[in-house]
Amino acid sequence: MSCHGVRALALPLAPAAAGGPVPLLPTPQARDCNRAQLPEVRRAGGHQVNLSDVVHGLAENWQADGWGRYAPAIRRWEQILGRPAPFPADPTRCGSFRLAVNFAQWCQGLPEDWLSGVPGLPYYAMIRILGNAVVRRQAAAALRQFADSRRSSTRPRTLASLRRRS
Prior knowledge:
By secondary structure, the protein is mainly alpha-helical. Helices cover 42% and strands 6% of the residues. The relative contact order is 0.13.
């Protein structure tokens, strides 16, 4: 599995629902502060759906669908973090929706108000910071997986063995 050209880690996932794999939310990105589109509009234009698009769609259909197809993933992350998911969107002045900073923080596994509690930071700066942040749990899992793969190599590498190759 790959996302943005990067091979995804083999992390333990929630058991698949009866209908197949559990869909996951897109990762927050720095560009999520840009105007969101409904996911079907974004796909129709040949573009990848981002978190802002998904949140826009969820907020537009909240009364009828709630978390929709993302409910199993949301519930699992709530259990892991030990706190409920905040509403994913904030209303804008023009009556549309945009990605809520608290929801992006929650998606990253960060404490409540980790960034949104910093006075004076504009919305766009907070979303860009969160989009460029590292999900600590994913980073830790990646490092563990890398260390395990290095330990299980057939023979240990030494400085002398590396010199012989050159």
